[in-house]
Amino acid sequence: MTIPLVDLKAQYLSIKDEIDAAIQRVVDSTSFILGPDVRAFEEEFARFCGVQHAVGVDSGTAALHLAFLACGIGPGDEVITTPHTFIATIGMLGRVGARPVFVDIDPQTYNIDPTRIEAAITERTKAIMPVHLYGQPAEMDSILEIADRHGLKVIEDAAQAHGAEYKGRRAGSMGHVAIFSFYPGKNLGAYGDAGALVTNDGEIAEKARLLRNHGRRDKYEHLLQGFNYRIDTLQAAILRAKLAHLEEWNEARRRHAATYRELLSDLDLVLPYEPGHVRAVYHLLVVRLPERDALREHLRDRGISTGIHYPIPLHLQPAYRHLGYKEGDFPATEECARQVLSLPMYPELTPTQVEEVARAIKEFLRV
Ligand SMILES: *Cc1c(COP(=O)(O)O)cnc(C)c1O
After folding, report:
1. Whose CB among 63, 282, 293, 340 lies 3.0–4.6 Å from 253's, allowing a Cys bridge?
2. Global model pTM greater than 0.70
């Protein structure tokens, strides 16, 4: 038996008729650019997130770029965020002339440690950007309170957290603006690249909507210098078909997480922590142990795929050497980078497969 980290084929087969019909509908209409499925998807996704507006774009990275621009973040500005995330979180910051300022994580949740944020605020700080990493919401009450006190924007990177909840509020609905990625492997994934910006702020939504489409008000009049960041109608149609299943898929992920937790409790490895006031959606199922690399090899030899999210913290990436950070600056992040291991996690995983993974881990730990 081989167990992949993610199985996109199993998901397609489970709703093949719906996906095929959605694709055929768009092909038949030939309305490939900003067709009716785009607006319908935006409305449905906004409702799913509990926000007023969603703007579909062609990647989570594009959504971040538009979020920074719509929040007025520009040259010389600083944005406080976590070094333990995918590089796209900060990729566009440099492109608007701003600079990421890192704050170490809480190793229990893997998210930005709110108790360390205030010390990082300067007169150049414009925003705080929490990432709901692995589908686990960041500690938003503290973050929003700090932002409020200092007049800062909050930009949620919810790329891994579609449907996650913090005290009953959905990821993406708590900050001034939030971004989602629909990269194929995400909890809601397109069949290619796609993303969205969501917000309750009508002005931010309007600006993002203009910027994603050449700053265009109508065909030949351009109010802003924009981009071509449009989501494809095909992707929007596929995402609509999949959005209808997202709740049940997130529930399945939560069931698998509970099974993993049950089978792996009381062992020498750190399990995902889910405080009572959040609903995590387990984009990734991450455990932590010092012998991470040896366990990874042991599982690979038994046909079980794993991942590492992420092995090199952002402050130690060659591309960001100019920021002047060094090894030792963020000890919790650096230890997690050495110890985290992502186990197979996707809705279609079977209980037998989870048991198989747990058995192989116990064999490695000799229990
Ligand atoms: C996937 C991801 C992104 C960016 O998404 P793309 O759609 O690949 O551009 C941003 N932030 C995080 C945390 C992600 O996981």
Report:
1. 282
2. yes
Instruction: Give the closest residue (by CA) to ligand 1 atom 2.
Output: 159
Residue whose CA lies nearest to ligand 1 atom number 6: 60
pLDDT category at 1 given cuts 50, 70, 90 is confident
Any atom of ligand 1 within 6 Å of the Cβ of 130? no
Q: Is the CB of 160 under 6 A from ligand 1?
A: yes
User: Under a CB-based contact definition with an 8 Å cutoff, are residues 364 and 295 in contact?
Assistant: yes
Domain limits, the chain: 8-103+110-243, 246-365
| CA of residue 159 to ligand 1 center, whole Å | 5
CA of 137 to the centre of ligand 1 (A): 15
Q: What is the pLDDT of residue 366?
A: 87
DSSP string, 290-343: TTHHHHHHHHHHTTB--B-S-SS-GGG-GGGGGG---TTSSHHHHHHHHHEEEE
The C-alpha angle 248, 253, 255, rounded to 5 degrees, equals 90
Separation of CA 40 and ligand 1 centre (Å): 23
User: Sign of dihedral through CA atoms 135, 141, 144, 146?
Assistant: negative
Tens digits of residue pLDDT in 72-118: 999 999 999 999 999 999 999 999 999 999 999 999 999 999 999 99
Give the amino acid at 9.
K
Separation of 265 CA from ligand 1 center, angstroms? 31
Which CATH superfamily groups domain 246-365? Aspartate Aminotransferase, domain 1 (3.90.1150.10)
Residue (of 48, 9, 62, 4) closest to 191 by Cα position: 9
Measured from the Cα of 160, ligand 1's closest atom is: 15
Q: How far apart are CA 353 and CA 1, in angstroms?
A: 9
**Closest Cα to atom 5 of ligand 1:** 60
Over the stretch 165-190, which tens digit does the pLDDT of each residue have? 999 999 999 999 999 999 999 999 99
Does 89 sit in the ligand 1 pocket, CB within 6 Å? yes
Residue 120 is classified by DSSP as G
In tens, the pLDDT along 2-22 reads 999 999 999 999 999 999 999
Q: What is the pLDDT of residue 367?
A: 79
